[in-house]
Design goal:
Number of strands: 5
Low-confidence stretches: none
Number of helices: 4
Strand order of the largest sheet: 2-1-3
Structural class: alpha+beta
Order of helices and strands: EEHEEEHHH
Largest sheet: 3 strands, antiparallel
């Protein structure tokens, strides 16, 4: 199927249609058989030009999912780690979950994202 589209200055796809009559009426002159897809940022791209999700975005999403899944926001994780470091008894399974989240958060802290 042929897609007719306009290419915006930032490299994203503006208006588009797969009908030649509609394309002519809209003044769309670029055509491709390539699929038009939505990127991670919500903008539309030609499939071959769609940017990959940045590592920090993936890490942020992973941390948010784990925090929600285990109900362990950062202040709670910090308190548990401090208690463990002070020699207090902390459940091993809970400590493992805290470490899982903290490991996922490392790229964010290294890049200043958290």
């Amino acid at each position: 199927m042929m897609n007719y589209y306009e290419l915006l200055a930032d490299g994203t796809v503006g208006r588009s249609t797969n009908g030649s009559r509609a394309a002519k009426a809209l003044g769309l002159t670029l055509a491709t058989d390539e699929e038009i897809v939505y990127g991670y940022d919500g903008k539309r791209y030609l499939k071959s030009r769609c940017p990959a999700v940045p590592q920090q975005t993936l890490a942020r999403r992973t941390v948010a999912e784990l925090e929600s899944k285990y109900n362990l926001p950062r202040p709670v994780r910090t308190a548990l780690l401090l208690a463990h470091a002070a020699g207090q008894e902390v459940d091993a399974q809970l400590l493992g979950r805290v470490r899982e989240i903290e490991t996922a958060a490392q790229p964010l802290r290294a890049g200043g994202g958290e």
